[in-house]
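To: structure subgroup
Subject: Chain for Friday's discussion

All,

I'm putting the inputs and outputs inline so they're searchable in the archive.
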Amino acid sequence: MRALILLLLALSSPALADVTIVDGDTLRIDGERVRLWGIDAPERKQACQISGQSVPIGQRATDTLRQILSNGPLRCDAKDRDRYGRTVSECWAGEINVSDAMVRLGWAWALPRYSKERFLPAQEEAEHAGRGVWAGHASCEAPARFRQEHRR
């Protein structure tokens, strides 16, 4: 019985969870898809023109998320479910708010409709500093518009 309790505790520990990065705003935690709260990151195959060159911004967003998650143990607090049945969560890597970091680094857009403008200052900072999708007079399409134009 004691071994079963220890196993259940180990399985419930976020530090021991099996985490896979799906794209810049979606994780798979122990097989469950988790969408990061309050942001929208480029789609995996999305590219845009930055300083006259085609840049794979979807891949850059995914790589940035991987880098952010290396900052400490992952902790996610579920906030909602989206229309696709995914859990929408606010997540931290150590002390770093993952959504805020993605927007601040310029690899995600703030979704004030859902986050009550919480990440707009981070987006304004990224725009002003020319980071990520805001770099070099970029002409990057917002992910929602990209999805609409490239439906499967």
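Points worth raising on Friday:
The longest strand covers residues 74-81.
Confidence is low (pLDDT under 50) at residues 1-14.

D.
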